[in-house]
Design a protein that fits this description.
The protein is an all-alpha fold. The chain is built from 7 helices and no strands. The longest helix has 21 residues.
Length: 113
């Protein structure tokens, strides 16, 4: 019965989320999206690490600090959390409606078909 009530809800604010969703799954989505938004800093850090080898701990402190600052800015932003929460709820409702996970829904068909 609970699933039916969830599926019928159209306002995403009415959806009750489980502890694992708010404390694990939505923060995971936030980390992935924050990495996309901080892509330039991720790339700079990765490039530095590749070039520095074993000494990356010492040589890449500036790039690491910039990356951490960018990511933390997003992690602590309540608006960003709410955006990710709403996207998570939309994906959850779509999965309940179709039974198809998001990752399978977005896969492209092979061109050789």
């Amino acid at each position: 019965m609970r699933i039916m009530a969830t599926m019928e809800a159209t306002n995403t604010d009415e959806i009750k989320l489980r502890h694992v969703e708010t404390d694990v799954l939505i923060p995971k989505m936030m980390r992935e999206k924050a990495k996309e938004r901080c892509a330039d800093k991720v790339e700079a850090f990765n490039h530095c690490c590749k070039d520095s080898g074993f000494f990356m701990v010492f040589k890449c402190q500036e790039e690491n600090a910039a990356l951490k600052e960018c990511l933390t800015l997003h992690y602590k932003d309540p608006t960003f959390f709410e955006e990710c929460k709403q996207e998570y709820i939309r994906e959850k409702l779509e999965f309940e409606r179709t039974g198809i996970p998001t990752k399978n829904r977005t896969q492209k068909l092979p061109t050789s078909m």
